[in-house]
């Protein structure tokens, strides 16, 4: 698809404008982090030149789970039941493996009611993007603590959370997830690069995105609000993404300053060192990093772990390359001889 | 229920009068002792003698060590329901032997392991002691193997006693162990030893005999789960997602086997299906719904506890109008209940499963043919009416052995329902996901991945308008609910019609459904022969009811609804349908977990009839 003549600036490689990746107008609170994430999803799909009709948007229940209505209006979407998006998404992909599947969930949807399905999706390495819009609170039911609320964090009402949080990234690595990233709705540049990386990945790509709830969890003492996140965000690295359909310019970096990762579809992720040596291709390194941040309370963002060649669920099932949903009758109803043979065996 | 008129042949008095091809053999063993193959050999050998059989396994919820009873009923009339009395007991389990012997009617036969010393218990039975383990020891030395082989020794002994031809026993053994020559030889040898011992040491003094007849030629023996599995394969299922539970597991497992054998694409060598053992029933149904939404023929199979877990997702499929097929192989509830006992206790749950106004389509197969056919129908219906379709089987149908005619190859092509492709959209020019274009309440759908600007829509379990946009407008909600109700009315015209038999001169009607039907022919015979009562018969094959039901009730003076649950759940649904004639309806119930038998029905009806 790549052409050598430069395209007019306002359309992507399919000739689509960014506006064609919009959805319906958002009904979330003005300033909600989730809307910022939606914008970056549109941008990433636009930049990657993905045909919206190939996309399936899946979600559970919550403010975050409503967002698929607000981006990619030209794609099919399925807003299911609370905490069960993983199974719906898995099924949709079993039915049609050509779909590019993006799942939207909240911290309540994923880490509370949906924890089981979340873990099993990751175990299976189902090829899809899974985004947690993590605000440390139940937005839609008006501000109760969730399972990712930090220990000691306080609701506006003064109630203090006395249970430890579940770290979805650490859990994801434990479950064998092959692409694990943490980001922040207030860091569009990083988020879009991580989303593009996710789109070029062949297994489950998990993005735990701190996405502040301006209505219920953005007060002074909140540990998932804009102010806190802006002040505490530490970049693991600077990320550049070079899609497979664009030429790679070679840039000179000093030894150890830059790491380049080739993704499944031939795209490249370039990680430029900030101030620490970190190799996201090491699973044990990722585990160490996350256990360290859990103790220190640091808010590190970036690509925490990636294995671009992990076997995904489709490889395992070894099923038809063409979508099961539309296999013709001749392929799915065996002939009379087969019935005869099975009947003979039962005589 | 008391019965004064029950004819009881005293078999001792009629010693000389033979009972041919009409008796039951119960083998009492220990779970996990490997008696499954020998029981099968015995059953199939009788079947190969041309005598109709049915085989029921009464087993514990346990892997090894608890008592199990396998009952073979030979019936020249072809009665396949459970027979209440046991005629021949093969007592292999020391743990239950005394109780098993005590529960027999006088004059019945006990074949037992000599060591058990059972003949002291009663003196009104016919005893055949046989040294099973010693005989087995002549074939194998290994202690563990000897136990297994002892099972096939009793097959040989029974064959000799009742006149089952050894050539048939040998043929079944050869079939059962396929190409394992050593196993075949051992088993054949053991069977012969069992027969030889009887011939040389015992004198037959019981009246029971198997005699060759011609009633099983071309027939098959199958269980309902296998029949449903085969039906699903020929329905073109592509996505099977499930979670293990008795008595439904073997449906999914058998299907997975068949798919592996017969549904690999010869061109690519790849599977034309996906089977996933999910983490629980919620996920199993969630995956099936996701696949159905994507356009695949998808299914799950489960039993009561799984059905309860699936409730929320069933509502989602109903409200989003997503096709999916759900098999419920019922067992006793509530809660864990008895995992290995049969029931029709989910009838009302299935019909109304999930919160809000929901009602579903439920198919009730009663025979092996229907297990096969309805499985195919279920997939067609799911895609035609775009909603979950339940196939309500039960443990008795699903896991027991039934004789049946070979299944007919489906003639009708797959009905993939109202799906608009990109070309269709181009031609039609408009699309609204939930608009009732045809006036039958069934809208059109597009599948994700359809390359057309009109195709996309946002499926949601929240309230929506015709374009599938979120809507809280009262009229959008009522319009939607009214259309779903209309769709239900359409479904009424598409489900399998009831089986109705009117009998001249009859005043009483009997209504049944599902596995209750198997006892009915015999019950009808008992009512006629013992009490001179004729009946009209009505077998429900689906919910919602078709119009035939009201008509039937109005033509009867009294209607007995027979089913296998405590509350008469189908009876309650019938009450709602025939409000004006409530007074005619009586409930006949059976709910001890054993498959229903004709005698229990006849007795209850007669108790009512006497007032
Ligand atoms: C089975 C069920 N239980 C409870 C609810 C109520 N409910 C709706 S959204 C929600 C929590 C959402 O929190 P989160 O996933 O963090 O999303 P947010 O609104 O914060 O984006 C709850 C409990 C529900 N819809 N379904
Ligand atoms: S309540 Fe919070 S999470 Fe929900 S829309 Fe408002 S700001 Fe966003
Ligand atoms: Mg939240």
Description:
The complex is a heterodimer of chains A (about 350) and B (about 600). Chain A is α/β, with parallel strands linked by helices and about 350 residues long. Chain A has one domain: Rossmann fold. In chain A, about 30% of the residues lie in helices and about 20% in strands. Chain A contains 12 helices and 13 strands. Chain A has an 8-stranded mixed β-sheet, sandwiched between helices. Chain A has a 3-stranded antiparallel β-sheet with strand order 10-12-11. A two-stranded antiparallel ribbon of chain A has the order 5-6. Chain A starts with about 30 loop residues before the first helix and ends with a helix. With about 600 residues, chain B is α/β, with parallel strands linked by helices. Chain B folds into 4 domains: about 200 residues, Pyruvate-ferredoxin Oxidoreductase, domain 3 (3-Layer(aba) Sandwich); about 180 residues, Thiamin diphosphate (ThDP)-binding fold, Pyr/PP domains (Rossmann fold, 3-Layer(aba) Sandwich); about 70 residues, no CATH class; about 110 residues, 3-Layer(aba) Sandwich (Rossmann fold). Chain B contains 19 helices and 23 strands. In chain B, helix 2 links the parallel strand 5 and strand 6. Chains A and B meet through strand 1, strand 2, helix 3, helix 5 and helix 11 of A and strand 9, helix 7, helix 9, helix 10 and strand 17 of B. Strand 2 of chain A pairs parallel with strand 17 of chain B, so a sheet runs across the interface. Magnesium ion (MG) binds next to helix 4 and strand 5 of chain A.
């Amino acid at each position: 698809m790549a052409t050598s003549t430069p395209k007019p600036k306002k359309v992507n490689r399919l000739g689509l404008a960014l506006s064609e990746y919009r959805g319906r107008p958002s009904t979330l609170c003005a300033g909600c982090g989730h809307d910022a994430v939606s914008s970056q999803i549109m941008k990433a799909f636009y930049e990657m030149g993905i045909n919206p009709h190939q996309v399936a948007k899946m979600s559970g229940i919550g403010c975050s789970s409503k967002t698929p209505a607000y981006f990619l209006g030209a794609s099919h979407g399925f807003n299911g039941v609370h905490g069960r998006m993983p199974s719906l998404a898995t099924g949709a992909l079993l039915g049609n493996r050509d779909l590019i599947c993006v799942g939207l969930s909240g911290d309540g949807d994923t880490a509370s009611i949906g924890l089981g399905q979340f873990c099993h999706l990751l175990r299976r390495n189902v090829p899809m993007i899974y985004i947690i819009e993590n605000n440390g609170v139940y937005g839609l039911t008006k501000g109760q603590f969730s399972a990712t609320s930090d220990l000691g964090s306080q609701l506006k009402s003064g109630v203090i959370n006395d249970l430890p949080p579940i770290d979805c990234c650490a859990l994801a690595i434990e479950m064998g997830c092959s692409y694990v990233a943490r980001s922040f709705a207030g860091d569009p540049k990083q988020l879009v690069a991580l989303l593009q990386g996710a789109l070029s990945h062949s297994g489950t790509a998990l993005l735990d995105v701190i996405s502040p709830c301006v209505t219920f969890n953005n007060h002074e003492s909140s540990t998932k609000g804009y102010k806190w996140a802006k002040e505490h965000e530490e970049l693991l690295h600077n990320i550049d993404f070079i899609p497979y359909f664009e030429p790679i310019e070679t840039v000179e970096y000093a030894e150890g300053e830059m790491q380049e990762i080739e993704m499944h579809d031939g795209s490249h992720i370039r990680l430029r060192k900030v101030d620490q040596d970190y190799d996201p291709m090491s699973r044990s390194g990722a585990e160490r990093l996350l256990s360290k941040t859990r103790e220190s309370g640091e808010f590190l963002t970036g690509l925490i772990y990636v294995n671009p060649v992990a076997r995904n669920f489709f490889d395992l099932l070894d099923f038809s390359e063409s979508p099961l949903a539309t296999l013709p009758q001749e392929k799915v109803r065996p002939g009379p001889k087969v019935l005869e043979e099975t009947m003979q065996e039962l005589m | 229920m008391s019965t004064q008129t029950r004819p009881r042949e005293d078999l001792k008095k009629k010693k000389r009068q033979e009972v041919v091809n009409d008796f039951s053999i119960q083998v009492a063993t220990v779970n996990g002792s490997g008696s499954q193959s020998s029981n099968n050999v015995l059953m199939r050998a009788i079947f190969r003698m041309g005598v109709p059989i049915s085989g029921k396994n009464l087993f514990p919820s346990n892997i090894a060590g608890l008592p199990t009873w396998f009952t073979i009923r030979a019936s020249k009339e072809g009665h396949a329901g459970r027979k209440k009395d046991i005629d021949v007991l093969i007592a292999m389990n020391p743990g239950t032997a005394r109780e098993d012997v005590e529960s027999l009617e006088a004059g019945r036969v006990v074949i037992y392991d000599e060591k058990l010393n059972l003949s002291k218990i009663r003196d009104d039975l016919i005893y055949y002691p046989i040294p099973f383990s010693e005989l087995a020891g002549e074939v194998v030395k290994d202690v563990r193997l000897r136990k297994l082989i002892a099972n096939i020794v009793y097959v040989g002994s029974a064959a000799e006693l009742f006149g089952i031809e050894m050539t048939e026993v040998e043929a079944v053994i050869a079939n059962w162990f396929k190409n394992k020559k050593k196993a075949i030889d051992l088993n054949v040898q053991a069977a012969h030893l069992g027969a030889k011992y009887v011939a040389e040491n015992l004198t037959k003094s019981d009246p029971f005999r198997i005699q060759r007849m011609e009633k099983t030629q071309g027939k098959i023996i199958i269980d309902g789960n296998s029949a449903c599995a085969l039906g699903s394969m020929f329905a073109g299922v592509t996505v099977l997602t499930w979670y293990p539970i008795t008595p439904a597991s073997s449906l999914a497992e058998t299907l997975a086997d068949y798919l592996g054998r017969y549904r690999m694409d010869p061109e690519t060598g790849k599977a034309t299906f996906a089977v996933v053992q999910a983490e629980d029933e919620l996920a199993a149904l969630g995956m099936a719904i996701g696949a159905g939404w994507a356009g695949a023929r998808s299914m799950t199979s489960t039993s009561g506890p799984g059905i309860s877990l699936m409730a929320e997702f069933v509502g989602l499929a109903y409200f989003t109008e997503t096709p999916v097929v759900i098999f419920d192989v019922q067992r006793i509830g509530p809660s864990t209940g008895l995992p290995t006992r049969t029931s029709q206790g989910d009838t009302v749950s299935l019909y109304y499963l999930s919160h809000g106004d929901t009602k579903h389509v439920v198919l009730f197969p009663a025979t092996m043919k229907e297990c096969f056919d309805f499985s195919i129908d279920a997939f067609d219906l799911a895609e035609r009416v775009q909603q979950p379709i339940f196939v309500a089987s039960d443990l008795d149908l699903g896991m027991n052995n039934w004789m049946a005619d070979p299944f007919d190859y489906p003639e009708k092509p797959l009905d993939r329902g109202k799906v608009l492709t990109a070309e269709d959209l181009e031609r039609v020019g408009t699309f609204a996901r939930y608009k009732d274009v045809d006036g039958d309440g069934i809208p059109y759908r597009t599948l994700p991945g359809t390359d057309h600007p009109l195709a996309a829509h946002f499926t949601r379990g929240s309230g929506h308008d015709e374009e599938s946009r979120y809507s809280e407008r009262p009229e959008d909600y009522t319009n939607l609910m009214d259309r779903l109700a209309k769709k239900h009315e359409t479904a009424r015209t598409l489900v399998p019609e009831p089986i109705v038999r009117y009998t001249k001169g009859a005043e009483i009607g009997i209504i049944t459904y599902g596995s209750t039907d198997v006892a009915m022919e015999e019950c009808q015979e008992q009512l006629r022969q013992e009490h001179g009562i004729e009946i009209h018969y009505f077998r429900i094959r689906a919910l919602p009811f078709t119009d035939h039901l009201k008509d039937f009730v109005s033509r009867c003076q009294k209607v007995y609804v027979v089913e296998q649950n405590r509350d008469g759940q189908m009876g309650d649904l019938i009450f709602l349908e025939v409000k004006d004639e409530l007074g005619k309806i009586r409930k006949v119930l059976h709910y001890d977990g054993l498959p229903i038998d004709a005698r229990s029905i006849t007795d209850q009806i007669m108790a009512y009839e006497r007032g």
